[in-house]
Amino acid sequence: MTPQFDSSQYRFKLGQRIDSYPTRASHFDNPKKAVKGYVKRLSEQQERLYADNRFSLLVVFQGMDAAGKDSTIKNVFSGVNPQGFQAFNFKQPTTVELDHNYLWRYWQRLPERGRIGIYNRSHYEEALVVRVHPEIIEDRQLPHKEINDHFWQRRFRDFVAMEEHLTDNGTEVIKFFLNVSKDEQRNRFLKRLREPEKHWKFSSSDLKERAYWDDYQHAFQEVIANTHTERAPWYIIPADHKWTMRAIVADVLAESLEGLKLDFPAPDPDEIKRFAKARASLKNEEE
Fold this sequence. Notes:
Elements: H1 31-52, E1 56-63, H2 69-76, E2 85-89, H3 95-98, H4 104-107, E3 116-120, H5 129-132, H6 135-138, H7 149-168, E4 171-179, H8 182-194, H9 204-210, H10 213-227, E5 234-238, H11 242-258, H12 269-286
Parallel strand pairs: 1-3, 1-4, 2-3, 4-5
Helix pairs in contact: 1-11, 2-11
C-alpha cells in the first residue's frame, strides 16, 4: 500500500512564482519505501500502456545542476521494463542538428505509442541556457537574431504548439522542474569534490554557471509561467531531499497513467475459443 498524499499541490499554478514553492518536503515516514510502492504502480501502468497501444508518455526533467535529474530517472524507472521506455540526455547540439530548426532534434526522439520517453533536459534549454547566454544564439546561423521579449514569446508559443500537437495525437506530456535550493546545490558540489568516484560528475563550468543562479531562476520562471497548460502541466518538485523528490515524481507519473484508463485488449471471441481448445490440448498431453 503506497502512502496517500495530494501531489497536485506541486502542480504549477498560474500567477505564482516558482520561488514560492518549497525546496524541501516531508510527506513520508519512509520515502525510500514509498518510492518502491509508486514504482510498482508505475510498472503496472507501463505494461498497460504498452498493451493498450493508443497513448505514449513524454516526461521532461529540468532543473539546475545537481538537482537530481539523473538519479531520479534511474530510481523512478528502475522497475519499468527497459523495452517500455527510452531516455535521452540532450547536450550541446551537433553541427547536423544546428543545420535544422531548433526543435528538430527533439522531434526525432519522441516516444512511439505504448512507450515512455524521457527528456533529461529538453527543448526548454532553448529558452533557458540560451537566454542566460545570448551569445549562443548570436553564434548560430539564424535569419533573425534580434533577441528581445518578442523573440522569447515566439519560442514559448513554439513549445506550447508542439505539446498541443503531441497531446492531440495521444502523447501525454508531464514536465518536472526539480526545485533545488542554492545551499543544497553547494552541498552536492562539495560532496562531488570530496569523493573521487564522483569527480566525473563535476566540471569547472558548474561553478561558472552557479554564478548565474538568479538569471537561471528568472529564465525558469518565464518558461514555466508561459508554457504551463492543463494538458501539458509543469510540476515544481521539492528537490533538496532526493528520496522525497523521487517519491513525488513517481506518484505523479503513476496517477497520470492511471487517469488514462488503460486496459489490456480483449481477444476476439473466436480467439477465446481457440484458447480453450489449446488449454484442453495441453491438459491432454499431461495425461
